[in-house]
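Report of the visiting student (M.T.), summer placement. My assignment was to run the structure pipeline on a short list of targets and document each run. The first record concerns Fe2+-dicitrate sensor, membrane component.
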Amino acid sequence: MKHMPSSVLRQASAWMARLSAEDASQTDQQNFEAWRAADVQHEAAWQKLLQLQANFDNLTAQGVDSRLLDKRGISRRQLLSWGMMGLGVLSIAGGTRTPYWQSATADYRTAAGQTRMLQLRDNTEVTLNTRTRLDLNNENHRLFLKLHTGELLIDNRRGSNEALALETPNGHISLSSALCSVRCTDQTTRVSAFEGEITFRTHGSHLSTDAHLAPGKQVVFDTVHTQPTGTASPADVAWTQGQLVAERMPVDQFISELARYRQGVLLADSRLANLSVTGVFPTTNTDQALQQLTRILPVQVNQISRYWIRVVPA
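After the run finished, the structure tokens were exported:
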């Protein structure tokens, strides 16, 4: 590692950040594999990063509880980044910023695999899914929620008569005596309406009034565009029961969904692109979910380390 260029170390760190992101795609994985094979120094830098992962495992084995690190605001990705800085990397992840970094100081946060329920002062119940960042504000004695990333189930059917305001990176949502789920990344927001009055407006909307979302419907929008409405499904909120419901779901999409509930990197081999899966899987035990998948489909789980797993053809 004495003569390893810092630019290569930055690239390796950037790939770790990219593949750890919630919206990592199969194209990202393929591009990563091509980068890794293109130069022996790329592989050497990647192996160093995996060694830093092993060092993190050793911390927990030596009695440093990962929950203590989390309470102190230290994530595994931060620890790895600091390790790369110790090797002379001055710019972490090549400038890549994920929703985690953007909302690290949010009022309410959940870690991978964690859910949390909040009871607001007006009897509104808000349940946070895994990897969620939420701010709670008061504006003129009115509650105002700001969802940076992640997923919520909101029930204000027993709340006050005033509409509850929610902002995401893509737009504004208003809920009156409603039950709905909201999921967002830094690209899109998905709203599934189950009961009540729900309206929304994208940040780039030029309409004079907000759009209505009827109960039983679902909408996905970015800052400008709104996709045609679909049907809201109870499967959208199965996570509140610790379940991931798949119905003819492409395997790469399934692995991407399951990865949200697990620390580290969980990837699907591109050769599994034509497979789909149907079933109900636990989000509270992702190891069990992966073993369940191997009993349903001709796949196997390759575990490089505790924090690096790849699902490949059997």
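The chain has three domains: 6-96, 108-233, 242-313. The chain has a mean pLDDT of 80. I thank the supervising group for their guidance throughout the placement.
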